[in-house]
Amino acid sequence: MQDTSTKIHFPDQNRIAGQRKSNRVAIRGRPNDIEEARQKIRNAVPVEFIVECNEEAVNTLGKQSLSAHFHESYGVLLRFYPRIDGVVCQVNLRGTYDTAERLKEAVNHFCRITRTFVDSVVMKLETSFDHVWLIRDRVGKITAKSGAGIRCPDLSNLNNLPKRFSIWIRGSMNSVYTASVMLNGYLPLQFTYQIPGTLDESMKRLARKKDILLNSEYSAAEMTTVRTLTYEKNAASLYELRRLCLRLPKSGTLPARMEASWDQLDDASCPFYSAVKQFVQQLEAIRESGSGRLFKEDPPQLLDLLQTSPSPASSSSSSGEQCLPVSLSAARFDANSFRHLKQLLHTLGLPHYSDLFLENEIDLALFTTLTDENLLSIGVSAFGARKIMTSAIKELTQ
User: Which CATH code of 3.30.450.20, 1.10.150.50, 3.30.1780.10, 3.20.20.70 fits the domain covering 320-397?
Assistant: First the structure.
């Protein structure tokens, strides 16, 4: 955040023990700064190769000596997991995407000194339901292009989803790495901004042509909130669409991060919006069949891709969803409850207080317990604003 002058928000449940973790990250700031921060985050994502080798060879060289040597020479972390049979040892070599070349050198060197076949390594990607759903029809193409074998979680039964969504890749070191980069190109990416006036219909047609799912919402302030969604490998199109919506010169185009292997991925037959629509259609089919609750645990975040409500780090916008407290006895900050509070503030004509409540980790459930003194203590100094808020709190609690 200091390097890029942005605000970066990780899901609140990641801070709470026992809660399902999320890999969604929200970045807020100027477009150039957002893209710089996004690239820095992408570079810092861990990448780990798994090598199965002879445990005797590892013990001969010494685990501590190996760990120290690879850390000093390549900046790579080694972790050892002995197998039950006492013969094979699993070794994980971990680096980051911005140091991938040094990591590959380390894997080659490790396989050489332990006399391990370098053309049979494994990589495990911990990801999300959204990502697995979006790639499920593309695994065959990625396998053919990269030469690696890929195994994904089974999503054929939405009523019985796995607790974790892990993708396993096996093959030669280069094919495994290439496959992982191709898979990362299909991570869902959302870009939200505001434009003056209304959105031209030609921009909506252009968004579909560029494989972008677009939602727009006009506000009373004569501004339109534009919410665009696509794959990460299509980030350049998101920025180009924004430039055209704002009628900026071509010099305003942002340099999006692109990987060379992404050029081999053609989505003409299965665009982004079709993949999301297909998910919604399957949900509707499940509802019509009367099979009861759709998901055993929390519903997949892919549902949010078609909603018009922004994330806590997005620009203010309104929606037709009724503002009701999620839980009057909530003991912790809840992102969904805060989203309802943000909608309520917009309805009250006080959207500019949203950031203040977010900074103080106040969601709608906690908001309904505040007094006039509480509001004053957190920085709501205007008497009129406090009067409107306390009246709304009274109405909600009644």
Answer: 1.10.150.50
